[in-house]
Structures are given as C-alpha cells and as structure tokens.
Amino acid sequence: ELPEGQSYLFISNHRDILMDPLLLNLLLFNHPFGTAHCAIGDNLLQSPIALEFACLNKCFRVQRSLTSPKAMFKAMKLQAAYIRHLRFNRSNNLWIAQKEGRSKDNMDKTNPALIKMLGLAKPKEMIFGDYLQQLNIVPVTFSYEWDPCDIDKATELETTEAQGHYQKEAIDDFTAVKKGLLQPKGKVQVHFDDGLLNGAIANMNHAEIADCIDRSIAKHNKAFPVSYAAAALLGLDVSQQGTADEYSTSQIAEATKILTLRLQDCSKAIRERVLKGYAACLTVGYNKVP
C-alpha cells in the first residue's frame, strides 16, 4: 500500500543475515519499486570476494570493527551522508537493520543511536524530526516460522551470560548465512508498514522514533503454531492472544512435537532460551491489538 514513485528508508528487525535483505529486495523487485541499497556490517566483508559480491548487489559497508570514539563518529557521519545522498540525490530505496547484528532472542528493539546517526546528515537549518520525516522511514517486520540458527543464537547468549563474552570464530557468520539460506524456515511473512509516513515523527526525538518503529514491528510480528507450542512448553498463558480461529489444536501439537525433537539434546538453559525466542512475539510489552 506504499505510494508508488517515491523512495523509502526501510528499517526492519533483523533475524537472518542474508535472507532479510534478500526477501525485501525480492518483494520490491516483484512490485513497482526499485531494489534497495542495503547496509551490511564490515564483519561480513573480510574476504575480497565477499566485498565484491556485496558491492555488485548494492550493499554499502557499515564499519562495526572500529574502537576509537573519534573514528566511530567519523564513520557514522560518513554513513549518514551516504544515506542522504542515496535517498535525496539518487532517489533510491535503502534498507538498514534496526540495530547492530541479528536479534538473538527475538526481542526486537531499535537502537536509538541508529536514529541519531541518520540525523547527522541533516542540514543545519532543519529540525531533526523534519529531516527524519523526509527520509520516508518505513518499518518492516520479518516473521519466520522456524529459525535454522535458533540453537546457535541461544548458545551464544548463554555463553555470553556465563562467561561475560562469546568468542566468535571466523567461520560462524558464514555458517549462519549458509543455514539461513539452505535450511527450512517454514512460512514467512514480510510486513511493510506506513506508520511513519503521516507526519507523526516530525516532532519526535531519536528515542521516540525508535520506540515508534518498535511498536510497529511488535504489532506486525506474526505468530505461528510453534509460537504457541513454545509458550505452552514454558507454561505461559497466551489465551488472550486470540489464536483459536487461526491455528488448530493439531497444528500446535505438530509444532510441539517438532520443537521437542529439535531440542532433545540441548541443555535446560539452551532449551529455555530457544523456547522464549519462539514465544517472544506473544510476550512483548507492546499492545498487538490494531
């Protein structure tokens, strides 16, 4: 339902390294919209081949490996300026994830610093909210029935909590990309909102705009049978979510069977984290009723 003949800045939750931007661009390509330039972390561009493929597919690098505050700020200003160039000078669509890295627990939260970064390129005479409004921000929600990396994500979170850090191997990101591309995801929904196109953000600050995006993503995050199966296995009461008409008891029972088998070799801690991830769309603190 987005007006044609305009360009947009799509900000989405981030569940899959490759499939999120791939599916977004596939949908844009199949409708009368140009494909989007996609922000990609430099941790994924360590090899020259990866960098060339990214550039050929309209990706631009986000420098995540910097540690100096001065260098980080300089990189953020350059990124903001490039987004402004693509959006206004070339009238191109863009995609960027709501925060650095994938959501490991499926609790989708926009980093307010991302919104503040976008404002670094605004003209001095322009109000922050007015500039953000002109970017035509569209929240996008990716909902996957099954996550091939669910146990890996839970393991990373559990290790980080137990040891204070998680030492990622060079092959980890490639493995995640491969799993996300080749292993089953079940049903997938991609929802494009229009909630930030009506002038509502003109008087908001960066934190309020981030919260607005969060509310959109939470509202349109689709629950699947596995969501209710996970909630039941956790002993959560989600009876107020109005699910009886959408999924049958047999569908939820089948999801329970698959989920139980999937987690049979996991520790109790990992199992609980995976279940909470699948049930997250039913337990977020935003009102999901339209």
Write the layout of secondary structure elements.
Elements lengths: L8 E4 L6 H11 L6 E6 L6 H9 L2 E4 L6 H21 L3 E5 L14 H7 L9 H7 L2 E8 L5 H14 L8 H11 L5 E5 L13 H15 L4 H9 L15 H14 L5 H16 L7
Sequence of secondary-structure elements: EHEHEHEHHEHHEHHHH
Sheet-strand content, in percent, reads 5-15%
| Assembly state (oligomeric) | single chain
Tell the overall outline: globular
Strand order in the sheet with the most strands: 3-2-4-1-5-6
The total count of helices amounts to 11
Q: Radius of gyration over alpha carbons?
A: 20 Å
Helicity level: 40-55%
Mean pLDDT: 90
Low-confidence stretches: none
What composes the largest sheet? 6 strands, mixed
Query: How far is it from the N-terminal to the C-terminal residue, by CA?
Result: 17 Å
Quantity of strands, as a count: 6
Could you please describe the fold and organization of this structure?
With 290 residues, this protein is α/β, with parallel strands linked by helices. It contains 11 helices and 6 strands. Strands 3-2-4-1-5-6 form a 6-stranded mixed sheet, sandwiched between helices. Helix 9 (225-233) packs across helix 10 and helix 9 crosses helix 11. The longest helix has 21 residues, at 69-89. The two termini are 17 Å apart.
